Amino acid sequence: MKTHTLLMPLDMHLHLRDGVMLENIAPLTAFTYSGALIMPNLVPPVDTLAAVRSYKERIISAVPNDYFEPFMTLFYKNYDKAFLESVVDEITAIKLYPAGITTNSEGGVESFNIEEMRTTLEAMSDLEIPLCVHGETDGFVMDREAEFMSIYELLAQNFPNLKIVMEHITTKAAVDMLDKYPNLYATITVHHLLLTLDDVIGGMMMPHHFCKPIAKRPEDLDALLSVALEAHPKVMFGSDSAPHPQHKKESCGCAAGVFTAPISLQLLTEIFEQFDKLDNLQAFVSDNAQNIYGICPEFKEITLEKRPFVVPQNYSGVVPMYAGETIGWAIESVD
Ligand code: DOR
Ligand code: ZN
Q: Given CB 3.0 to 4.6 Å as the disulfide criterion, which of 24, 79, 83, 279 pairs with 316?
């Protein structure tokens, strides 16, 4: 039986929610990952030191073992430097959402006025706090990410010492941006390495493939695969696994988010094996993130085995991507 071993996998973009959902969902990631960058789009958003600390405690209490580190983020607002100095040791990044662009982002940035943001972004540069960005405009849905590229350029040029992470990129336009500015990085999800818009609405409408940003065209998928499979050093895995209760997905007015936490490593292994790039998966799923963020994760060794695995229909009321379908790799052991 063919196997593949990964050390200290990291998921650098993860939604865990709160309450019962957190208790049910966090153990799934903690089982196979050494750590994850935790998104702050709770209601209300995580935007104070007290909120960061207590959310981190709730995550740690929800996880059954000690071998998982939640890397915390703060919800972007125009903070002053004194506040940022008080939180810098407790957070790994700050996450910026344009207002209203996705789930629970109503308190995000209304307009990208660089002068209004300058104090905060300069303080973040000085304190070496990376800025993670949900890069979409409010334009036509297929163009939102490409339209956002000019804002990334503005940020990258004005704040050359700020590490800017283009989150969950879905377009060739974003891939092309990576090598243009030394301070731009990106995360890529596993579903965006598998889906195009055809898989969302090309046949029957597939609510469990619907997310923001929406999956794009075949040439965009190819561009994402090209940098992920080569483990481009400025690209990291970030699942954007976003659990919603089944009734919120399978409903009129489907919530955005693809839930991949329990199957992301298996799917990544399958993709990298198909393209004969398994040797690059370690960098994509851990080493690049360690270098970019300067983090040192808890030791964990995951062995996957190449055998059919039927994806469960749901995990505590949350339907995963590919529910009921057979995928090619399974988790064999975790040490
Ligand atoms: O599809 C998405 N779901 N995209 C996001 O940016 C947020 C996420 C969520 O929180 O559900
Ligand atoms: Zn997200």
A: 24
